[in-house]
Amino acid sequence: MMKLGNDHHVYEQLCTITAEENVMMGEYLKKHMYTRLGGKADFFVTPASIDEVQQIVRLANKEEVPFTLLGNGSNLIIHDGGIRGIVMSLKRFDSISREGNSIIAESGARIIDASRKALDEELTGLEFACGIPGTVGGALFMNAGAYGGEVKDCLRHAVVVNREGELLTLSADELDLGYRTSNIPDKGYIVLEATFDLKPGDFDEIKAVMDDLTYKRESKQPLEYPSCGSVFKRPPGYFAGKLIQDSGLQGKGFGGAEVSTKHAGFIVNKDNATTSDYIKVIKMVQDTVKEKFGVELEREVKILGDEPEEE
């Protein structure tokens, strides 16, 4: 693993910002990823307050250390070589509350849990999220959606920290939410909290919708294996899963990664796959679909980090 020249200095600085147990050196990121993939982070830090987040961002700027924010990695693949610099997880930011007809959720909370809180409070509008495995922050990052709904439909505003460490409250419009996109990565925003505007509803009716969506998800998606969810964006006029299925790719793969036999749009970590295995399968799928149908499949999943050094 490539090392920064001032490792100990950066470690000491991080430990003055947050508790020492919140700072780890050389931590394997696959332990924290939904996909169970990824090499080591130079520094893995889990701040416990907004002030700590701001200070860590400012430290990274001052020391010119690379900085990466991670959710639970449900739509992310990290290279086997890991990630240099500071990797921040907001898993401690996981509170969810109600205010009026809104649900306020911190970015490290699961979007599934936000939808369940809305159900408990008899608020409708977040049912679509009941099966999305990512965090609230990750859901905003990519304007997550399912079954005809998306974050854009109900988000009022988000509290973020920018690249300079400043705290901002931005409206949904200011985040440029589109199909599986936002301006959050380009602007370098760190989402801390989201407010979803919902409407009063009937508990039994909301639960019936969520139960139906959960059944559809569990019956169609390969939840028995780690994966990064839907790998490819929907190409105009087609369905990615159908193209992959019609290309005869289900069950095919490299190493421990293969195209799911249950849902062709998923690549599963079936047997201790490496990121290299995963990426080979993605390329195989893209090349085969292009050759057979002339359709370019665009990745929805993000890939971060360093490729491993050659032995």
From TrEMBL:
Stored Pfam families: FAD_binding_4, MurB_C
Enzyme class: oxidoreductase
FAD-binding PCMH-type domain mapped to chain residues: 37-216
Enzyme Commission numbers on file: 1.3.1.98
Compartment(s): Cytoplasm
Primary localization: cytoplasm
Keyword annotations of the record: Cell cycle, Cell division, Cell shape, Cell wall biogenesis/degradation, Cytoplasm, FAD, Flavoprotein, NADP, Oxidoreductase, Peptidoglycan synthesis
Record: active site: 180, 230, 300
Cofactor: FAD
Catalysed reactions listed for this entry: UDP-N-acetyl-alpha-D-muramate + NADP(+) = UDP-N-acetyl-3-O-(1-carboxyvinyl)-alpha-D-glucosamine + NADPH + H(+)
Pathway the protein acts in: Cell wall biogenesis; peptidoglycan biosynthesis
Function field: Cell wall formation.
Family that this chain belongs to: Belongs to the MurB family.
Annotated NCBIfam families: murB, PRK13905.1
Protein name: UDP-N-acetylenolpyruvoylglucosamine reductase
